[in-house]
Design goal:
Distance between the termini: 51 Å
Strand content: 5-15%
CATH superfamily of the largest domain: Type I PLP-dependent aspartate aminotransferase-like (Major domain)
CATH class of the largest domain: Alpha Beta
Number of helices: 14
Largest sheet: 7 strands, mixed
Number of strands: 12
Radius of gyration: 21 Å
Shape: globular
Structural class: alpha/beta
């Protein structure tokens, strides 16, 4: 099946995904039962207790596994619950290499929670576009860069230890939209016997399938594009290895951070329109990125769809699109705040990936948990603004930003 068809008809044929055989319902029923009748002690019909398995959740899990090309999917109560379960695959004393430009919640989990239980993490620049530059050397206003090319596997190699077990990356990254060469990193992981974990939230399986390039585990904050309507908090994980699936299912059942049936139903409904939404997000984002690149009061634009973005070629090779996320930088935190307060159609809010456009200041919102000195080193300045471009009319969004810039002068 082609991508848009698979979004609607994907999953395991013959299960509850296709509806209710008794009534002919075309939608997956919402099974609210917490327990299930057994035909005899230990003889159930596939379900025994809703934490262990629920038919509505199972339909969603089969669907996301199919969309990503994995063997098994898992649905959790949030993206961070999903990431936590993945990290619990490792033992005390293990070490994980993490891309340094990751979601603030992931950084907080690794440094302030899991570290207390003996899981070590080293953060490295895993991007494909070149080394991080000193202040004044990052992306120019037209999306260009003076960044020096570098060998990312060599960068990763410097962080490998005897107890290293995995590499965790986002691509594109949050919030600087750096691109990670998945094929190169996967080859590095195979060479060193490491698992490759990819957060695919920004691209979704409609635009990018990390398993095709050698990933072992794919994670989604399904709250974002997969839901698409700002009405669900959820996380999804897909694995490519059955044994890894068994281990993760044990953790899902043992720790219990599962997705509720009604939320699973809403997520299935959201995924059905993912294709048309992602195309609209990207169309609008491309137009806004061009608008921002032409403004003299914008210092830098971060959008991999710009041909001058240092990761553009890698992105074009490993993904079918460039997504709907843009970050741009102005000269101060004060100007950034004036802009986000002046917009009328963009909503000042955290999160991303919904039909409505959102705007935020990462240093004060999504990435506030990252220490200021680390934000500065990464390039997450007080003047950095992140846009989650919605599916409104693109011209209206450009007009809204234009008037906000004028008010912020």
């Amino acid at each position: 099946m082609r991508p848009k068809t698979k979004l609607i008809h994907g999953g395991s044929e013959g299960d509850v995904r296709v509806g209710d055989e008794a009534t002919g319902a075309v939608n997956v029923p919402i099974y609210l039962s917490s327990t299930f009748k057994q035909d005899g002690p230990g003889r159930h019909r596939g379900y025994e207790y809703a934490r262990t398995g629920n038919p509505t959740r199972a339909a969603l899990e089969a669907l996301i596994a199919d969309l990503e090309g994995g063997v098994r999917g898992f649905a959790f109560a949030s993206g961070m619950a999903a990431m936590t379960a993945v990290m619990m695959l490792f033992q005390q004393g293990d070490h994980v290499i993490v891309g340094d430009d990751v979601y603030g919640g992931t950084y907080r989990l690794m440094t302030r929670v899991l570290q207390r239980f003996g899981l070590e993490a080293t953060f490295v620049d895993a991007s494909a576009g070149g080394e991080r530059a000193a202040d004044g050397e990052r992306h120019s206003a037209d999306g260009g860069s003076s960044l020096r090319e570098t060998d990312r596997p060599a960068s990763l190699a410097s962080a490998v230890r005897e107890n290293t077990r995995a590499v965790l990356v986002e691509t594109p990254t949050n919030p600087l939209l750096s691109v990670v060469d998945l094929e190169a990193v996967a080859a590095f992981c195979r060479q060193h016997g490491l698992l490759l974990i990819v957060d695919n939230t920004f691209m979704t399986p409609y635009w990018q399938n990390p398993f095709a390039y050698g990933a072992d585990i794919v994670v989604h904050s399904a709250t974002k594009y997969l839901s698409g309507h700002s009405d669900v908090v959820a996380g999804l994980v897909v694995v490519r290895d059955p044994e890894l699936g068994e281990r993760l299912h044990f953790l899902q059942n043992a720790t219990g951070g599962v997705l509720a049936p009604h939320d699973a139903y809403l997520l299935i409904r959201g995924i059905r329109t993912l294709g048309v939404r992602m195309e609209a997000h990207e169309h609008n984002a491309a137009k806004i990125a061009r608008f921002l690149s032409e403004r003299k009061d914008v210092i830098r634009v971060y959008y991999p769809g710009l041909k001058t973005h240092p990761g553009h070629e890698v992105m074009a090779r490993q993904a079918r699109g460039f997504g709907g996320m843009i970050s741009f930088e102005v000269d101060s935190g004060e100007r950034a705040e004036r802009i986000v307060r002046a917009v009328r159609l963009f909503t000042l809010a955290e999160s991303l990936g919904a039909v409505e456009s959102l705007i935020s200041i990462p240093a004060r919102m999504t990435h506030a948990s990252i220490p200021p000195e680390r934000r500065k080193a990464l390039g997450i300045t007080d003047g950095l603004v992140r846009l989650s471009v919605g599916i409104e009319d693109a011209d209206d969004l450009v007009d809204d930003l234009a008037q906000a810039f004028e008010q912020a002068r």
